């Protein structure tokens, strides 16, 4: 009787080499996409990271005030923004967040951060940029106006200290609206940031997962005429620029 013999098992080292070659091939295939995504993110942030001057800061603050007014006037969002702003530690206003891409996409923009002190007064603004890159099926572009309400002390400290990633060091959620206002605004949402985004008058429920917030030291120095960290600006009050007083008043009026 003929007996069937089984084939010898592949040598462990041979199998390991095959797995390693497969993994190496996958990494090689993904590398161009990852590099392209990083390049897109750099381009998205380029307007925020390019050399700026005092006039750029003044323009950004003026547009931030317009964005704040526009979102407050929004029929659906306005009451919620004002209610949550009364509880917020700070606000980051981004007058123009650009988003777009084809397969590889990204978004980016610059904004101003103001914190509310124990006396209820709003600080002078510090300048920041925000951006993110992504890989996936996507096409087209979009421009939106964004309010990021910083609801916790941890959120404010993380943003002030250094570059911070939403979804990593910070928890974020799209700001609620549409339900009963009293019930929504008295609920503990347990997040560091609430976001309200508007594009062409329509609310976008984005939580900005994966976005990176970066301070703009050069623009801060140009706007205030001396080097100043975001902490020195919004917490310590070591510098001031009267041009921003109109935005500070608008925030004070919003929480009355």
UniProtKB/TrEMBL annotation:
Origin superkingdom: Bacteria
One matching Pfam family: Ysc84
Ysc84 actin-binding domain residues: 132-254
CDD domains: SYLF
GO MF terms, alphabetically ordered: phosphatidylinositol binding
InterPro entries: SH3_domain_YSC84-like (IPR051702), Ysc84_actin-binding (IPR007461)
Protein name: Lipid-binding SYLF domain-containing protein
């Amino acid at each position: 009787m003929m007996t069937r013999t089984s084939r010898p098992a592949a040598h462990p080292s041979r199998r390991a080499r095959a797995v390693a070659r497969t993994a190496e091939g996958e990494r090689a295939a993904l590398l161009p996409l990852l590099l392209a995504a990083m390049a897109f993110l750099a381009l998205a942030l380029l307007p925020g990271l390019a050399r700026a001057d005092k006039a750029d800061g003044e323009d950004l603050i003026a547009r931030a005030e317009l964005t704040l007014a526009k979102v407050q006037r929004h029929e659906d969002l306005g009451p919620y923004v004002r209610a949550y702003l009364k509880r917020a530690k700070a606000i980051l206003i981004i007058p123009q967040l650009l988003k777009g891409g084809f397969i590889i996409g990204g978004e980016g923009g610059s904004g101003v951060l103001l914190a509310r002190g124990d006396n209820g007064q709003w600080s002078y603004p510090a300048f920041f940029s925000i951006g993110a890159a992504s890989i996936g099926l996507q096409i087209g572009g979009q421009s939106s106006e964004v309010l990021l309400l910083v609801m916790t002390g941890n959120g404010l400290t993380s943003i002030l200290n250094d570059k911070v990633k939403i979804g990593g060091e910070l928890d974020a959620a799209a700001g609620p609206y549409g339900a009963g206002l009293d019930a929504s605004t008295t609920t503990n949402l347990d997040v560091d940031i609430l976001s309200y985004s508007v594009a062409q008058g329509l609310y976008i429920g984005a939580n900005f997962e994966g976005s990176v917030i970066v301070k703009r030291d050069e623009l801060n120095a140009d706007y205030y005429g001396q080097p100043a960290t975001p902490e020195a600006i919004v917490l310590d009050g070591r510098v001031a620029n009267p041009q921003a007083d109109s935005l500070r008043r608008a925030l004070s009026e919003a929480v009355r």
